[in-house]
Amino acid sequence: MSGPIRRVGVVGGGQMGAGIAEVCARAGLDTVVCEVDAAAARAARERVAGSLDRAVRRGKLPESAAQDALARLVFTGDLTDLADRQLVVEAVVESPDAKTEVFAALDKIVEDPAAVLATNTSSLSVMRLGRVTGRADRVVGLHFFNPVPVLPLVEVVTSLHTSADTVAAAEEFAGRTLGKTVIHSRDRSGFVVNALLVPYLLSAIRMAESGFATAADIDTGMELGCAHPMGPLKLADLIGLDTVASIAESLYDEFREPLYAPPPLLQRMVEAGLLGRKTGRGFHPYDPYDPY
Ligand code: CAA
């Protein structure tokens, strides 16, 4: 791959994929977002357009820049549209099977052998995803935070197979091109942030489950007592309770520490389809049209 990364692909147009695509387009990059079909691709476009509108309304972005960013984005239901990309960021559901399938397919589709294949996984092994490709040295973790246009951090995750060139390209991309602050982590479940954050969220869920305090009081406690922008149960609702449960399971599988074990209330809420903001109800009720 010669020169800086200008052609980016994003696989998955949910809240993380749409956010990643938005910051790429806002940074002037030619960005293709791939979803499972044309209807999901349209929904991803709406998600990005809604967030760009919000940035304009909040005075963070001129209207013309929002239009330019949207014009740089292509939404597709066909993974082969990513063939000419210099970087592809996978941001599908936090499931080993789903992510493995994407990496195996990208390995066949992306033509440039020096392209970077990145995963936005929160907790799965980057090495295992790399191993399903014939180019594990080009596979790296690029872990963004939700809401992606607002939060300035990216974790760059290096597996035992990732080459130094790939890490340098990922860091240059996230830091210089997107303007994010980069921290580095080895390839251990949860990396730096989720290995610390998720046990805290699970403790709050256990506290609510035991009747120790109400969800509202737990959140108010951490917002007003510790100046967190949102309490732990609101934050779990924002991340998505299915995602929190999947991350907890990966952490527990890796470390076997009780603090990572998903509490029964979390499991029940996921089974009940109460996934937080994206379904309109989690620990709190939401307006489904309000992204956060
Ligand atoms: N583009 C750019 N800026 C935007 C924007 C957009 N699309 N939407 C909002 N903003 C800006 C706003 O202008 C505002 O900026 P100022 O403070 O400079 O005015 C700021 O973002 C906050 O926006 P709002 O006023 O609309 O909303 P809010 O004050 O209620 O904050 C929040 C909402 C940003 C979500 C805040 O509550 C927050 O930061 N919460 C914590 C989120 C968090 O911890 N996320 C990490 C989750 S963990 C994760 O993601 C990793 C994982 O793997 C699970």
Description:
By secondary structure, this protein is α/β, with parallel strands linked by helices. The protein has 2 domains: 7-186, NAD(P)-binding Rossmann-like Domain (Rossmann fold, 3-Layer(aba) Sandwich); 193-279, N-(1-d-carboxylethyl)-l-norvaline Dehydrogenase, domain 2. It contains 11 helices and 8 strands. An 8-stranded mixed β-sheet has the order 3-2-1-4-5-6-7-8, sandwiched between helices. The longest helix is centred in the first third of the chain and has 20 residues, at 38-57. 45% of the residues are buried. It binds acetoacetyl-coenzyme A. Acetoacetyl-coenzyme A binds at residues 51, 54-55, 58, 60, 122, 145-147, 149-151, 194, 197, 229-230, 235, 239, 243, 292. Acetoacetyl-coenzyme A (CAA) binds next to helix 2, helix 7 and helix 9.
What does the secondary structure layout of this molecule look like, with pairings?
Layout: E1 7-11, H1 15-26, E2 30-34, H2 38-57, H3 63-71, E3 73-76, E4 87-90, H4 96-109, E5 116-119, H5 126-131, E6 139-144, E7 153-158, H6 164-177, E8 181-186, H7 193-210, H8 215-226, H9 232-239, H10 241-255, H11 264-271
Parallel strand pairs: 1-2, 1-4, 2-3, 4-5, 5-6, 7-8
Antiparallel strand pairs: 6-7
Helix pairs in contact: 1-2, 1-3, 2-3, 7-9, 7-10
